[in-house]
Each structure stands twice: as C-alpha cells, then as structure tokens.
Recover the amino acids of this structure.
C-alpha cells in the first residue's frame, strides 16, 4: 500500500463520523428542530457501542447498541422540546452535558480495556482495482453505511413525498399543520433519526477510529458537525464534501505533527476548530443566502392550537 | 395517552417560584434511584452527597470557593441569554482570563508591589472580555453563529494554556511537570476569614457582581434595553436600541466576568497555572444561570446549589466509592428538570387518556 493510499484511508476514517452525524442533524434541522445535543448523543453512542461489543464479543452488536443509544437519548430532547416546548438551545446543551457525564460514568469500567475493531468487508472484483480498490472497497460496514446514508437522505428529502412533508414542516410548521400534516410526530421521528445517526457516528469512533474507550473521546466532533450543517447550507451532498474537507484538515494536522515542522503540537491541534470558525465566517457573511437556505421554522417552538 | 399544553392567560407567579424547587426535588428523587441502582443505600448516599458537606465550617468555605466562579460566570451569561446572545464559550474566556491575569506573577516574578494583585484582576477581566470579543465581532459583522464560534474557541483556549504551561511558562524548577512557577504571596488573592477556612475574595466579587447586575437589570435603562432586545429585536429597534451594540455589550461583559473568575480561581485557589484549571465551571455556569431563572439573585442561590454538587461529588467519591462523574450526571439531570418544569410557568399541562380529541 502506498503512502498516498494510507493517507486517503485515514482521511476517510476521520471523515466518516462527521458525515454520518451531520446527515442526521441535517434531517432534524430540515424538520425545523435545532438539536445542539449532537456531542452528547455521539458520546453516548460511542460508550454504548463499546460496551455492546465487549459484552457480546461482536462489533456488529456494538453498532446496533450505539444506534439505539443515540436514538433513545435523543428522545429525552424530543420530549422536552416538542411535548413540553422547552427552549431548544438550552435543552440541546443539557443533552450534551448529561451525555458527557453519563458516558463517563458508564464507561469507567472500560477505560484502558482493549477494544474490538470492526473488521473490513472486502467487495469482490472491485477491491482489486488499483488505488481506489484498496481505499473504497475494503472498508468497514460503517463507511458503506455513510455512503448509503448520503444517497438515501438526499433521495428522501428531495424525491419522496415524506421528505417533501418534512421540509414543509421545517419551513412553516403553522401552514403544514393547517394542511393536516402531523408536525409533532414527524419532528419526533426526525430528532430520533438524528440521534440514531449521532449514535452510529459515536460507534465509529469507539469501534473504528480508535477502537477503545476514553472519556470525552468525541472531542468536540459533535459541535463541528453542527457547523458542517450550516456550511452545507442544509444539503446532503455538501455535507458529504464538507465532512471530507474537515476530515482532511484533521489528518493534515496529525501528519504535520509527525513530520515535526517546528510548530508546537497544540497549535496544530487547534486547526480543526480554527477551520470551523473560518468556514462559518465565509458561509455566514452573506446574510441573504443564509436566510434563503435556513429552514424558516428552525429552532421555533410549535404549540398546536386546540 | 397524549400530553396537551394549554397556554395560561398570565405567566404563573406561583410556578415561577416553585418550578426550580420542583426541579431540585425531582433531581434528588432520580439521584436516589441512580444510587440504588449503583447498589448504594439511597438515603445514606444523598446524605453524604448533599448534607454532610454543609455540616462543617471548613467545608462551607470550600462551598464558597466553588460557588464563586459559578456565580460570577453565570451572572454574565444571564445578561447574554436575556438579550438573546448565546455565549456558550465561558469556559474559554475563563481560561484566557486566567492566562492574561497570570502574566504579571509569572513573567514579572520579581516585581513586588501592592499593585500586582489589582492589576492581575484587571488583566484577567480584560483578557476574558477580549476573547469574548471574537464571537461578538463575528456575530455582529459576519452574521456568524455565536454558539458554534464561542464553543470552538474553548478548545483553542485550552490548547493554548496547555502549550504555555508545557512551553514558555513552565517552571524551570518544576522537575519538568507542566506547571508554571508558584505565585508570590502578594499575587495571591487573600482569604476572607483566614481563621476558619480557605474561602477567598472571589466570593465577595461574585456577590457584588450579582447584586450589581440585579440592580442594572431592574432599575436602569440598560437593563430595560437588554430585556426588550432579548424578547423582540424588532420592538427593540423601534425603541431605538441597537442589537449590534447589545451583542458587543453582552459578550464583553460576560467575558470580563468569566475572565475575572479565571484569574481569581488561579490566584486564590490554585496558586499557579497548570493544564487543567477548571472542572467545567464555564459549562456548569450555564446550568446555574437557568436554575437561577436568569435572575442574578436567583443565581447566587443556584450557584451555591451547583457548588454543592461538586463538593458532594468529591465527598461521595471518598465515603461511598462512587465515581466523581456522578457530579456531572446530577448537573445534567438538574438542567433537564429545570427546563421541563419551566413549562408549568407558561402552560397548563393536561394528560388526555382517550385517543379521540375531546370537544374543547
């Protein structure tokens, strides 16, 4: 395997969780709900996936546990913001704080336990292609899922009837409600889809990226995910491109450290966070385009008239 | 079964007061269940967590030490949140305040003067304010989401501190440990009442800040401006208030308080810089602000409650052998219950058992 292939592989590994979690949040936000709890759902997914894999001996059980943990944890958020119409920003923060605490407590027994790595699935014929064969067709299940999700979410949002309804709710919940669309129920499902995706992204962290459990191992990726959705102006394929851009920045930073450029490692570690800020500035400074792209009901509470 | 909300004609004064207490009670109940599931006697555990730390004088001092940064930061955040500016990066402003304030006692170690301490505090507040100016500038001029930028800056601040204490500011006599040199005695924030415990002046700053902001919000035009712009930017604009200026004001103000909390913590409690100077005060202060109803006097009370969760966590670790992560779980639960109980202030909650919607 050439160095080029090796770098591409690490970029993919670093990008996959960002793409998955951002797609989930994109669907949630398209329905008009701003869930800032991605970091919390992701870390809960990571610890649940690790624990599930340890107890069963199978990383695939771990993946299921991660997805379930993310989805169940997001229900807390959904109940508070959709049923009890609590402030979405504050509730999302609560979800993150609780997730970071609870995952630390649940995962305490697993610190420095050797992890189980998710194996690769070799696709016959295609995997023999030069360069891309090794990079794209000898990957783990979660990578294939991430690609399927990009295609699936894109199709769902723009080609399906249910997706049209979901977007309508995100743009005007009052009109959608008047048309007889189930606003609250759809939003519950959208939030849970976001949670499931964040959980899957967390599973990738503890089963593929670094197959072990460490406290706070999500390291702000959930927050970067939120920036990615803004960056992508709520479009799935742009989430995909943006996720890989950020993954590349993360890996670049690691390689730069390995080469020892004379820049202190801490400054290189700042790069993904600084890049997030720069990207946000570039995307947001044109007020008009942001307004056009943002789902109009985003973050607004909906109480049906009775 | 379905839960329906019915908007109250008026905001419920009763529930505005009762809901934080209800949230506390629910958190305790869930805490008891959690301890039972961990195999501990719930009564004994809650006693060790929430009561025993209050029974000794030295322990009350520790409570004041932990409450001080929480109250200082939360009071600033309340101004932000009330004006609809979501500063989530207080942890970073706290860290930068600690760094800029430590400049004098570390770099000018040999300068001895009674001026050192006041200058440190000013530098700390300035540092915090300048760091908070970044998301303010980005929000005011580039329309950038302040939640995300202020949060990204937390990671940057922590990495910067890490670099300083491992590099430029490392104690030459520190046996290669990543710590700065210890502050000279005149750079240490004095204790309030030395005979009985360690509590230092930061607690007094916190109380003064809380009362001052309470006065500002209640009796001054600035306070009115904050509330109006927070509730409706449009209404504020008609009244001649500028939301751009409010972004600057609220961020600089909360940043300065967080920075002051940072330098006060380092100078009063730790005595030097090290890679970890905060057990998440900047994030916990968000809970403090909400539990205190974004009211500075309420924040004094809620700051003491959240400080108790830190102390209780330490005590429970020693006496019960449970993980100190329990503290974080308690804090997260509390914020959840506060937010859900707040619904009662604005809405009546009805549980509908039948599947058919009743004629209203």
């Amino acid at each position: 395997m050439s160095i080029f292939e090796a770098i591409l592989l690490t970029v993919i590994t670093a990008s996959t969780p960002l793409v998955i979690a951002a797609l989930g949040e994109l669907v949630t936000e398209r329905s008009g709900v701003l869930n800032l709890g991605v970091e919390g759902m992701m870390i809960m997914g990571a610890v649940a996936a690790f624990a599930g894999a340890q107890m069963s001996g199978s990383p695939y059980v771990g993946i299921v546990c991660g997805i379930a943990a993310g989805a169940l944890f997001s229900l807390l958020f959904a109940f508070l913001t959709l049923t009890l119409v609590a402030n979405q920003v504050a509730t999302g923060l609560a979800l993150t704080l609780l997730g970071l605490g609870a995952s630390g407590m649940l995962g305490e027994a697993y610190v420095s336990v050797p992890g189980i790595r998710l194996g690769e699935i070799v696709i016959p014929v295609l995997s023999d292609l030069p360069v891309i064969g090794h990079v794209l067709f000898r990957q783990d299940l979660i990578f294939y899922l991430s690609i399927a999700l990009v295609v699936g979410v894109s199709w769902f949002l723009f080609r399906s009837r249910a997706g049209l309804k979901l977007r309508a709710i995100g743009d005007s919940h009052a009109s959608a409600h008047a048309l007889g669309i189930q606003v609250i129920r759809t939003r519950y499902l959208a939030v849970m889809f976001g949670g499931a995706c964040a959980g899957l992204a967390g599973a990738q962290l503890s089963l593929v990226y670094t197959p072990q459990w460490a406290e706070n191992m999500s390291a702000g990726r959930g927050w970067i995910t939120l920036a990615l959705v803004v960056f992508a102006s709520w479009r799935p394929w742009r989430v995909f491109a943006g996720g890989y851009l950020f993954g590349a920045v993360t890996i670049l930073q690691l390689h730069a450290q390995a080469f020892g450029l004379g820049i202190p490692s801490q400054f290189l570690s700042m790069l993904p966070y600084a890049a997030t800020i720069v990207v946000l500035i570039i995307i947001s400074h044109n007020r008009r385009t942001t307004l056009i792209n943002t789902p109009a009901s985003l973050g607004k509470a909906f109480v049906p008239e009775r | 079964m379905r839960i329906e909300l019915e908007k109250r004609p008026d905001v419920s004064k009763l529930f505005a007061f009762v809901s934080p207490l209800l949230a506390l009670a629910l958190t305790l109940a869930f805490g008891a269940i959690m301890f039972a599931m961990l195999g501990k006697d719930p009564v004994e555990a809650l006693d060790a967590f929430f009561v025993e730390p209050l029974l000794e004088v030295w322990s009350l001092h520790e409570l004041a030490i932990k409450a001080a940064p929480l109250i200082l930061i939360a009071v600033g955040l309340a101004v932000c949140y009330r004006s609809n500016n979501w500063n989530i990066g207080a942890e970073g402003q706290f860290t930068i305040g600690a760094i800029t304030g430590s400049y004098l006692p570390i770099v000018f170690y040999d300068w001895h003067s009674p001026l050192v301490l006041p200058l440190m505090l000013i530098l700390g507040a300035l540092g915090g304010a300048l760091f908070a100016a970044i998301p303010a500038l980005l929000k005011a001029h580039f329309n950038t989401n302040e939640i995300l930028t202020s949060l990204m800056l937390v990671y940057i601040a922590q990495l910067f501190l890490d670099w300083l204490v491992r590099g430029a500011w490392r104690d030459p006599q520190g046996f290669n440990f990543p710590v700065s040199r210890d502050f000279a005695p005149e750079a240490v924030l004095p204790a309030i009442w030395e005979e009985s415990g360690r509590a230092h002046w930061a607690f007094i700053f916190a109380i003064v800040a809380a009362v001052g902001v309470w006065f500002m919000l209640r009796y001054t035009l600035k306070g009115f401006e904050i509330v109006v712009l927070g509730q409706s930017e449009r209404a504020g604009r008609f009244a001649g208030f500028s939301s751009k200026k409010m972004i600057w004001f609220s961020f600089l103000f909360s940043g300065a308080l967080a920075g002051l909390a940072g330098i006060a913590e380092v100078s009063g409690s730790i005595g030097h810089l090290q890679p970890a100077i905060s057990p998440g005060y900047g994030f916990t202060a968000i809970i403090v602000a909400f539990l205190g109803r974004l009211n500075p006097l309420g924040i004094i009370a809620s700051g003491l409650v959240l400080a108790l969760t830190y102390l209780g966590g330490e005590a429970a670790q020693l006496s019960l052998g449970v993980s100190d992560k329990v503290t974080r779980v308690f804090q997260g639960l509390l914020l959840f219950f506060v937010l859900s109980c707040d619904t009662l202030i604005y809405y009546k909650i009805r549980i509908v058992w039948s599947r058919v919607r009743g004629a209203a």
User: Anything to note?
Assistant: Chain B touches chain A through 51 residues (CB under 8 Å). Strands of chain B lie at 2-7, 347-352.
